[in-house]
Structures are given as C-alpha cells and as structure tokens.
Prior knowledge:
This protein is an alpha/beta fold. The protein contains twelve helices and 13 strands.
Amino acid sequence: MLKPRPGIMDIAPYKGGDAKLPGQTRVIRLASNESPLGASPRAVEAYRAIAPELHRYPDGAAEDLRAAIAAAHDLRKDRIVCGAGSDELISLLTRAFAGPGDEVLYSQYAFLMYGIAAKTVGATPVAVPAKDYGADVDAMLAKVTPRTRIVFLANPNNPTGTLLPAAEVRRLHKRLPADVLFILDAAYAEYVGGADYEDGAALARDHGNAVMLRTFSKIYGLAALRLGWSYAGPAVTDVLNRVRGPFNVPAPAQAAGAAALADRGHLDKARAHNDLWLPWLAGKLAEIGLQPVPSAGNFILVRFPDPALTADMAAEFLNGRGILPRKMGPYGMADCLRITIGLADENQAVVQALADFAAPRGDAHRVGAR
Ligand SMILES: Cc1ncc(COP(=O)(O)O)c(C=O)c1O
C-alpha cells in the first residue's frame, strides 16, 4: 500500500483565513494579516509590465530584486536568498537541517508552519509552553537537547503579536549550541516601533547559525505573489541555494518586489496607518470588556473571557455582519480571535459589531470615529 513518510499523516493541513462568506457580497477581510492599503501602485505597475514576458523563465538568481533588498536594508546581496513566500524558506531550511529523530523547537502559539515543516521532514516538533502568550526564553533553553537542530522564533509572533525584547532574543541565541540553526522570522518587522527590537539581521551577519526571514506579504501588500527572503551567513546561504528550485521566484513577484522597495512613501503610509489603528482597536476591545493581547504586529489577538459570550459565538456574529476574523482553534486558543487591522471603516465596523455582541440588550456604546 502506498504510504507517505512517517510524520506526514500527523499534519493537520494548514487552513488559511477565510476570504468569502456565503451570501455576502461585501466582506471585511480581517483574517490573514494582509495590508489594508494594498500594494504600492508602483509594484502593481511593475507586475503588469511583465505581462509580455510571461513565456520567459524568471531570473533564477533574482539579481535585481536581491540588489534592491540589499540596498534598502543595507545588507550584503550575496547573503540574500529569495523564496516563494517565507513559507518556502521555512520549508527549505527545515528540510536541509532536520530529519527523522531530530527536534525542531519553537514556542507554544508560534506560527503553525514551523510544526508542519518539522513533521514534513519526519522531525519531532517541540512546542515549549509560552509565558503571557509570548516566547519564554528560559523554558525554550531548558528544552534544547542534543537532538535539537532548529529553533524557530517569530518576532513579533503571529498569531499572538507578542514581541521578545532584543536582549532576550540575543540571550536565547547565545545559549544555543553552534550546531543549532536559529531562525528568526521577522515577517512583521516593519510594524515594530521603538529601538528595543532585534529583527535578526545583525545576528545573521555575525553568526553562522542564525538566519533572518522576511516577507513581502505583510506591510508591502504582495501576499498574492508569494515573495519572501532570507539573510544568513555564507554556509546557510549556500545550502539554501542548493536545495531551492532553480526558478523558485516568479518574474512578476521579483519585479513587483523591487518596485515596492523603491516606494518608501507607500511603506511609510502603511506603517502610519497601523500606528494609528492598532492602539485604537486595542483600546476599544478593552473598553468592550474583551482582553486584547498587546501586539507589535498588524493584528490583535483578543480573548473572550465570558463563557456565555465565546469567541466562536463572536466569530459567528461578526460573520453575520460580513466581517471575517481568524478563529484560533488550530492554535489551541479556542477562546480567542485574531483580528487584522483594516481600513478605518472596517476597524470601526468590527468594534461596533463586537460592542453589540457583548451588550445584546442595546446598552452598547456607540463607536465613535477617532
Ligand atoms: C510569522 C510568519 N512567518 C511567515 C509567514 C508566511 O509568510 P509568506 O506569505 O511570506 O509565506 C507568515 C504569514 O502569515 C507569518 O505570520
């Protein structure tokens, strides 16, 4: 009988955020941490301009895109590898550095793809209990064994939005054996304010066992094109270039990514939008009596403490108003929903709906504009 390799059938298939609601024409999509402002018009133009060249293979080395990334982030181009989303790089790194009998470590409530990638290669996923929804460095270090091959850390973490301070990130890395790969997933780096942040670039520059992952899916609004990149030392970079597909990043993604980087104005606008609405939404959710987890990303994990007003009931109520949040059952947080920061009217609509949900007798406060 045909049988996949051990571990594969233990994988619960990843289910992305819903994008449609039956019977609703206009839906407010707050389930996938996409940018409400969309992509830069320059990126859209660059994407369109590729149309006459669709019969050509893309540049397998993504030279122009890597040069644009290197210039924008002040990094070495020869240490950058592009991937079809950072998801692809998570898979490739796991495949290259872990296998049956090995352990892949991450914090409880970390991005689901880490566990899926580990199981795919037959490695053992080790989820370390979180502290206040975030990574607990001491607990993680305590779980490192001679079998540990990879430690993943999303900073900020999705879906909790928690941020690990720079000193804690460095402490975690410092105590890891040199033969353990430390993967810092900085998918939401652009949203983080304040100086106390380590995106992983300096660690990856200075240490052969550290790699930073980034994506164009979030603040750059290019999720549909599947574009991410890694920054690592020469050895890990070499490994990635051996195991990736020769043309793993499509030409339209390369062109749009480079154009997006050139549009600083759009990036600043997206960041300013988040800076305005993230605290607003957190404040309103707390006013309603819900428990938002402090977030450094473009989304908020919110806990529903009243057993008579559950997260599932809230999701259904929101769906009835055409609003799509993300349910957290797959992350083991069935008492929570994750809500992405949307456009102004979308944020107001979700707060009004949750206020009505939490106070069904009509004593809900009116949600004012900010
Ligand atoms: C922490 C984290 N890492 C990686 C990804 C994957 O991003 P990409 O679209 O680049 O594959 C996501 C997407 O939600 C994420 O939240």
